[in-house]
Amino acid sequence: MRFMIGYQMTGDDRFLDLLLRNREKIGEVYFAWPDIPSGRGTMKSGNSLNLYEIQKKLLSDLKLLSDAGIALNLLLNGHCYGRYSQARCFFEKIGDTIDFLASDFLLTSITTSSPLIAKFLKQNFPEQERRASVNMEIGTCES
């Protein structure tokens, strides 16, 4: 059995070291991008780092995970993107983020709760597996 693990930014590298030591048991690590709402809270919570430092640490950790052969899943599963939910700049930001992550890291899938984002992903990133978020509360094929 292989596990899907949610990325956690901690004050030290114990969590990351644990993931790397057990990489054969981990099929995937899912993570949110720091400045895109994800439904997971922010990495800023309980963290003294600024946004730039958070992103730098995240990228470093994602590189180590990718190099260890652990697949990555980007979470785009916020429930509300406010006035940006249909804005071109929002979709450009998502597209640029995915392009960057797919070119330098082992990004293999994206999870979203937005039908609009899912359609955008299908049209622009067909090579990426797309998943419906548990935040959509889909219980059966009928619901």
Q: Can you characterise this structure?
A:
With 143 residues, the chain is of the alpha/beta class. 36% of the residues lie in helices and 19% in strands. It has 4 helices and 5 strands; from the N terminus they run βαβαβαβαβ. The protein has helices at residues 14-21, 51-67, 88-104, 115-124; strands at residues 3-6, 26-32, 71-76, 107-112, 129-132. The protein has a 5-stranded parallel sheet with strand order 1-2-3-4-5, covered by helices on one side. β4, α4 (115-124) and β5 form a beta-alpha-beta unit. The longest helix is centred in the middle third of the chain and has 17 residues, at 51-67. It is globular.
Helix fraction, binned, reads: 25-40%
Q: Return residue spans where pLDDT drops below 50 for at least 5 consecutive residues.
A: none
Helix/strand structural class: alpha/beta
What's the number of helices? 4
The neighbouring-strand order within the major sheet is 1-2-3-4-5
Shape: globular
**Ends: how far apart?**
29 Å
Number of extended strands: 5
Q: Write the H/E string, N to C.
A: EHEHEHEHE
Strand content: 15-25%
Main beta sheet strand tally, sense and closure: 5 strands, parallel
Rg over CA atoms, rounded to whole Å, is 15 Å
Summarize model confidence as the mean pLDDT. 87
Secondary structure elements and pairings:
Elements lengths: L2 E4 L7 H8 L4 E7 L18 H17 L3 E6 L11 H17 L2 E6 L2 H10 L4 E4 L11
In short:
This protein is of the alpha/beta class and 143 residues long. It contains four helices and five strands.
